[in-house]
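Need tokens for this chain, all 432 residues.
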Amino acid sequence: MLRRALRNAGLLLTGKAAAGLMQLATFAIAARSLGLTDFGNLSVMLAGIQLLIVLATFQSNQAIVRYGVLHLNSADRPAFQRMVKLGVLLDLAAAAAAVAAALLLAPIIAERASWTARQTDAWRLLALLPVTIALATPKGLLRLFGRFDLLARHVTVTPLARLAGAVVLAVTGAGLMGWVVMWLIAGLAGVLVAFWLAVREARRRHLLGGMTFDFRRLREGNPGMIRFAMLSNLHSSLIFLPGHIATFSVGMVLGPQSAGLMKVAQELGSGLAKPIDLINQAVYPDIARLAAENAWQRVRKLVRNAGTTAAALSLLVTLVLLVAGRPGIGLIFGKAFEGAHALLVLISLATSLSVSVFAVDATLYAIGKPSRPLATAVIANLLFVTVMFAAFGPLGLLAPGAAWLAAGTATLVLSLVWLAVAVPRSGGEPAA
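Here are the structure tokens for all 432 residues:
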């Protein structure tokens, strides 16, 4: 089962690797084109908007997989259609909330960051970004259908559009506003392609026949879906919050140049967490099926093997970054960004700690215990924020690195505790 999950993840990884290289190239072009200060301002804006997106967005793709498996097994097409409509509504409502929050916060953040009127207008325009990434439901459907090949292709759409736009902007010498407009257009391309792929695959399975625009009684046949989506959103939000909080906070406390260094270190240091997340997406449906069969020994073996493999790969990456990270940063982004090297190594080491237990969260979701990974994320994030702000004074730019190490250690310990307590060692029901 792990081999099948790895094959599916391999499909995703093929696209994600290409997308990662394109994203890295895009940021490298942006860094060289805008310079350290303006690149830092762009990084702060993106981090701020993405922070709001993460807080507001419902991770309905987890709910789509969990409830979709039940509907497909029971051939309950009306319930399936209600589930899809509910997922889309959750995605759109969250995007609207994030846009409203970004617009309301614009004058406060602009004053704190000492932005010009032009930079403030760029933030307001970028506030539309949440609308372009309402991807949770269509991506969840593609996962449910096992179309990881399509997900692998889709994951390259937005990065490819950004890279093409970056080349044009660099050649024309466009400023910050041009980069903001390009970011929005590329995001729109991604969301449109995602919906087209999901609708096409659902139609091929004859799942959309008779579907109407009636939005009444959407929870019928999907009991607890909104609560499940809210809890999974809180958990996933807390997982992604540290990166956005770090870049945004560094920009506010230490200035845009430090934020630029922070962004470079984060992109390179947490890079392995992205393919690991893809493996997590691929393995989740299989864990859900094993849990339904009470095959707990196989679940534990799958979690153990997946975590050991991920930790070994991440430690190898950290070693490479320790030896060759500084010249690599200079080669890709320019010598002005080499000051990010020490922070880069700390972030990569912290990533090794957290990815070693990545499959535990999928297991807890599969057995209907979303509150456990949520508790882990809450504790890890509180520790992250506390350590980072306490360390800004003595450590400066290295403060986020120390915070990531503390949070990674907490994630490792708590995940092992939940695995021991909640997942049976043999047949039977999970612990309450």
